[in-house]
Amino acid sequence: MQLAIIGTGYVGLISGVCLSELGHRIVCIDNAIGKVGQLQLGEMPIYEPGLKELCAKNLAAGRLSFTADLAAALQGCDMVMVAVGTPSTPSGEADLGYIDRAVDQLMKVMPKDGLMVIKSTVPIGTNRAIAQRIKASGRGDIEVVSNPEFLREGKAICDFLEPDRVIVGAESAHAKAAMERLYQPLVERGYPLLLTGLETAETIKYAANAFLATKVAFINQIADVCEASGADVEEVSYAIGLDKRIGSGFLKPGPGYGGSCFPKDTRALAWTARRIGRPIGIVESVIEENEVRKQQMADKVIEACGGSVEGLKIAVLGVAFKGGTDDTRESPALVIVPRLQKLGARIVAYDPAAMEMASTQLRGVNWARDCMSALNGADAALILTEWEDFAQLDLHKVAAALRHPLLIDLRNLFAPDSVAEAGLDYVSIGRTTVRTAAPAD
Predict the structure, then answer these.
(1) Do 183 and 193 contact (CB within 8 A), yes or no?
(2) Which residues neighbour 8 within 8 Å (Cβ) at sequence distance 6 or greater?
(3) How far apart are CA 313 and CA 311, in angstroms?
(4) Which SS3 state, helix, strand or coil, does residue 205 take?
């Protein structure tokens, strides 16, 4: 099939590259000329493992291209996929400005009887409203399809090419057949394609992310109970995850969720539910708990440092909201680091991928060239992101590099016994704090 994709942000770019890998001819469209030129050369504007190599492969094969010319790109296309941003407004409502502009442009240039596939995450009822607006404009020949994405940053290639499920909200036989053809390579490999109505597809996306965010908030609160009672949250998490009704995913305690999906989608779902008179108290509580969590973790760091961080040099390892990405949107680091700075801490930080992005959001931070440079002479080490690089650190070298042997691990990357053996005081989440008699030799 031949497909045009509007938008080369995270979702649009991943979708374009992966659909071309499935054998389709994909043209990705963006109005940023410089970005298009960068992509035409195979240079990636985002960090995502495997993306650069897969893009280069399909550029070379002639299945993937990039352009700023919308009208020319649509010639001969079987469908157009819209993958533009829907950021949160201060009220929590999704900002549909980018969607509205894309739809307005497409109505002017789309071929007759085209399919407009909305890949962007939009509030429940949006696709129906778009279809009605298109019909009112006189372009009733254009049909709207909902096709939400379920991509985890850092694992997006795998999530697209080996999905748990593909969700398609379509109403006509023509649209259903076209979408089945688009995803036929995945269906042939055994991955399920679920055909639903428009509103059902939209709700599936929001319900999935809200449920996962709820699991994160739940285990974080259980971790607090474990700390107060002497229980071990890692053992608790493992045990309850063995229950098939619960599952082990998203039961890892941490400093709170961030990124482009969970915060935005939980707010949008809560806003929509309130608007239609069916508020979801559970989701609203999760949103509140997550914001409080980040402040609580700052308090935890201060307490671990003896009640004050004034004048202390703190080495921060990780500023991305999770490992495997350069995305810092709503990262716990954006709350915790400024709070420590305000209380007099000097911050030196290192992240394998996110320092460039974070440098525009975190002021007064000294950026290190590697882990050990950040740790050298610091009064405490603070792990905020679960990068594999950090989990592989030699703890004896960490102890030797630090001015004071204090490791504050908000991702529980290490076993307490191994940290103690290296001579480090160890503060983690939902587990007993380890204090050693003396630093390592």
Answers:
(1) yes
(2) 16, 28, 29, 30, 32, 35, 36, 39, 45, 66
(3) 7
(4) helix
Rounded CA separation 173/178 (Å): 9
**Which residues are registered as beta bridge partners of 381?**
315, 407
Here the tokens at position 382 are 């603070």
In this structure, what token pair is assigned to residue 97?
A: 């400005």
Report the largest interatomic distance among the alpha carbons of the chain, rounded to a whole angstrom. 78
Residue 183 CA to residue 195 CA, distance in Å, equals: 12
37 with 74: CB under 8 angstroms? no
For residue 261, indicate whether it is catalytic.
Answer: yes
Q: What are phi and psi of 166, to 5 degrees?
A: -115, 125
Cβ atoms of 168 and 195 closer than 8 Å: yes
Confidence at residue 143, expressed as pLDDT on a 0 to 100 scale: 96
User: Choosing from 77, 261, 305, 371, which is the catalytic residue?
Assistant: 261
Neighbouring-strand partners of residue 116: 80, 144
Query: What is the total residue count of the chain?
Result: 441
pLDDT digit string (tens) for 198-227?
A: 999 999 999 999 999 999 999 999 999 999
pLDDT, tens digit, for every residue of 92-120? 999 999 999 999 999 999 988 999 999 99
Q: Please classify residue 431 by burial: count the beta carbons closer than 10 Å to its beta carbon, then call 0-12 exposed, 13-18 middle and 19+ buried.
A: buried
Q: What six digits make up the tokens of 305? A: 């440092």
Which residues, in sequence order, are CB contacts of 101 under 8 Å at separation 6+?
none
Which among 198, 201, 199, 195 has a CA at the least distance from the CA of 182? 195
The mean pLDDT of the chain is 96
Structure-token match 């001819």, residue found: 25
Report whether 84 contacts 120 (CB < 8 A): yes
| C-alpha dist (Å) from residue 171 to 148, 194, 201 | 15, 13, 11
Domains and CATH numbers, the chain: 2-196 (3.40.50.720), 292-427 (3.40.50.720)
DSSP 112-169: TT-EEEE-S---TTHHHHHHHHHHHTT-TT-EEEE------TTSHHHHHHS-S-EEEE
CA distance 65 to 62: 7
